[in-house]
Amino acid sequence: MTDQLDNLFSRVLSAKIFANREMMRPDYIPNDLPHREDQILRLAEILAPSLKGSRPSNVFIYGVPGTGKTAVTKYVLKKIEDEGRKVGISLEVAYINCKHDDTNYRVLADLCESVGERIPFTGLSTSEVFRRFVNLVDSSERMIFAILDEVDALVKKTGDKALYDLTRINQRLSRTRISIVGITNDLKFMEYLDPRVRSSLGEEELVFPPYDASELEDILSRRASFAFNRNTFEASVIKLCAALAAKEHGDARRALDLLRISGEIAERNGNNKVMEEHVRMAQKEIEKDRVVEVIRTMPLHSKILILSLHLLGKGGSTGELYDLYCTLVKNMCLEPLTQRRVSDLINELDMLGIANAKVVSKGRYGRTKVVSLSISTKNLKEALQEDQRLGALIKK
DNA sequence: CGTCCACAGGAATGACGGGCGG
DNA sequence: CCGCCCGTCATTCCTGTGGACG
Questions:
Q1: Which residue has the closest alpha carbon to B20 C1'?
Q2: Residues A68, A36: contact at Cβ < 8 Å?
Q3: CA→C1' distance for A322 and C15 (Å)
Q4: How far apart are CA A94 and CA A148, in angstroms?
């Protein structure tokens, strides 16, 4: 054992692939954002009036995941903050990820906290938090930027009340000004909104197009030239990562993850060069980790449902699936959920990409949803192995 | 061309637990 | 400690519907 460990340590220590691994992490904000010059300029243009003490327009930013929306926003606001400090204007930036904080309450609570007020995790009414926020913020003169990242998650879940309140907040403030930057992955997001919110939130709009393969390649090679040591990767590796990510809607985050994990795999294997096969392994690993992690943390009934899906083999109607699920549940001496609830669970699985669900009409023999599992048995096994009873039921 | 199956999926409501102010 | 408000999960009841069959 000691030998093996020594061996491992020496391999890790002698690995010379990464020069600066931090730069490959998804939350790293680089100093240059290639192919986003237009957006940077445009956003800065919109927000710059804050430096002269007037309230900039609210901005709305669209773009599919991994197109640099968050990075550009953070980058520009950081520059503006710096500049504000120089000219002696107090600017505050509240960054809120609405996917993580997807209730009106938590968004407000986060806003409060970012201006320095501790708010109980729960317990107060939402309007009380709102009132506190207004009072606090207006106690002195300042400019606040509220960045609502992935704001579509919030609205889809709880409606646009919070947004409405926020857009109207300026009318209740006498000294402080708030400007809202909304970021969304959903291009049709505006349709969900109340027209009043739409017009005040969308004073300015900014679209981030997806990166194409050559842009991704450029981004990757720039980043890699800092993060990796010299001569540790082939140009073809970068090309492959870019191509794979371009297929996933031009997601730069995905591309960077892919490259980083490829590097890690190469390092783990004791190679001193990243090869194409490492990239392919990395892609499998990313997918596996995602799926396994998601399933592992699911509630029991969802797991049983997945298992039923697996046992059903190649697709089945909700009716068949529900029957199988019920017998499985009863065998475990549990009460089955209603069909209605299961229907929601199926949709959830579909959203997560674990299952495929498609409504099919069979004429007068009804309408149903044909569901099938879209993950490999191997990954399923790994995800369910913690639960003996479920794991044992997996087919060969 | 109307019927009618086998569900989809919306709305309302309830049970429950966490966490606060008082 | 109680009462309040919250979010989450679940149930019940319900209306809607694509298209093969007759």
A1: A123
A2: yes
A3: 22
A4: 8
Strand B nucleotides, any atom under 7 Å to a protein CB: 3-11, 18-21
pTM of the entire predicted model: 0.72
Measured CA A341 to C1' C16 distance, in angstroms:
19
> Which nucleotide lies closest to A370 by the C1' atom and the CA atom?
B7
The per-residue pLDDT string of chain A (396 residues; one tens digit each, 9 = 90 and over) reads 778 888 777 766 666 777 777 887 877 888 888 899 999 999 999 999 988 888 899 998 988 888 999 999 999 999 999 999 998 888 888 888 877 776 777 777 777 777 766 666 666 666 777 777 777 777 778 888 989 888 877 776 666 667 777 777 777 777 888 888 988 887 766 766 667 777 777 788 899 999 988 999 999 888 888 888 877 788 888 999 999 988 888 889 889 999 999 988 888 887 888 888 999 999 999 888 888 888 888 888 999 999 999 988 777 889 899 999 999 999 888 889 999 999 999 998 998 888 988 988 888 898 999 998 888 888 888 888 878 788 888 875
Residues with CB under 7 A from strand C: A 102-105, 122-123, 125-127, 157-158, 299, 301, 335-338, 340-341, 344, 361-367
Assign A292 to helix, strand or coil.
helix
- The distance (Å) linking the CA of A170 with the C1' of C8 is 33
Nucleotide with minimal C1' distance from the CA of A321 is B7
Closest nucleotide to residue A337 (Cα to C1')?
A: C10
Domains and CATH numbers, chain A: 37-207 (3.40.50.300), 211-295 (1.10.8.60), 298-391 (1.10.10.10)
Q: Which residues pair with A41 in a beta bridge?
A: none
Longest dimension (CA), chain A: 73
Site of tokens 């938590």: A106
CA at A306, C1' at B7: how many angstroms apart?
20
Residue A363 (CA) to nucleotide C22 (C1'), in angstroms, measures 12
- Angstrom distance (rounded) from CA A316 to CA A150: 34
Q: How far is the CA of A340 from the C1' of C14 (A)?
A: 12
Strands (E), chain A: 59-62, 91-97, 143-149, 177-184, 204-207, 316-317, 355-361, 367-373
CA dist A24 and A385 (Å) reads 32
